[in-house]
Amino acid sequence: MSFIIEDFGKLNGTEQVKRITLSSDAIECSFITYGACIQSIKVPSKDGLIDIALGFDTLEGYVHQDKYMGATVGRFANRISGAAFTLNGKEYLLAPNEGRNTLHGGLCGFDKKNWAIEDADVNSVTFFYISPDGEESFPGSLSVRVRYTVDGNRLAVSYSAVSDQDTVVNIINHSYLNLSGGGAVGDHFVRIDSDLYLPTDKESIPIAAAPVAGTPMDLRQVSILSERLDSSFDQIKKARGFDHCFILNPSDFSASKITCCSDASGVIMKLFTDAPAVQFYTGNFLEGCPAGKGGAVYSDRSGLCFETGGCPDSPNRPEFPSALLKAGERFIQSTVFEFGLLPDSRK
Ligand code: GLA
């Protein structure tokens, strides 16, 4: 086990950004204070350790991209329709940054903040940020913590947040993963334990929950992505792939909700979470992203995001799991990524 902390550039030439690397006997993960990002996840493959997280070698890479690469996204991840919501009888008008809707916390969300390191040891690092009352027009001063823990073959991501006024919260991690270590993700296999998903309108706003059964959105059995991505199903064509919220079937934390694997590398990943939903996004708009680590070219569908969290637009949708965080109460949510090798890939 080891722990390294180093400089990762200066934001606006002044504010120091740090990188923390935590290693266990199985995996090695790096995180940066800018956006409380996951910068790399190195896991064993049939050809040795490979980095399965897309990202950049330098701070400039992170600052000059708009893909939310590896970032902690908040205060409200995903979309709020009409850039407005009403809470306790008061209407809050947000900044529209995707057409007339608000995406991923607004113009300057958590992904663009340089978080403080509150605590760090050989297993874990805790990033801390205070989002002031009225930031991006959200009510309440919100103290947020993101704790990353590396333990054996597991990376755990835990959020906690407290506000001094009633507010809405949806915090997710926006890592793009490629379990082959590069190339297109069509060869990945995915399983999502979900009977219901949220079809979207042309502005990517959810319509109403619909059964996955009988559609290419049914990922309840491990399925190869290429066939689904090429399907003529309207929801997939419109989004250029998957970019949908799946309501996770309720089960114990100890039962994995999502599985993903690559035959090319032999890497298998299981996700455990207490979040009610996941936005499954197949990197449909990665084109135009600046060159990544080691000069990697990130084209459309070269990374998968499993954004475990709440449902899009829930502040406006009483039928969805509530995003309300009451003053003084604590929001807590965790997701664990567990890595292994497919049986045939073990040497
Ligand atoms: C989420 C959204 C996508 C896209 C990406 C960021 O996954 O659902 O539509 O905005 O973030 O590029």
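^ alpha-D-galactopyranose complex. The two ends are 23 Å apart (CA to CA). The helical segments are 59-63, 225-229, 234-239.
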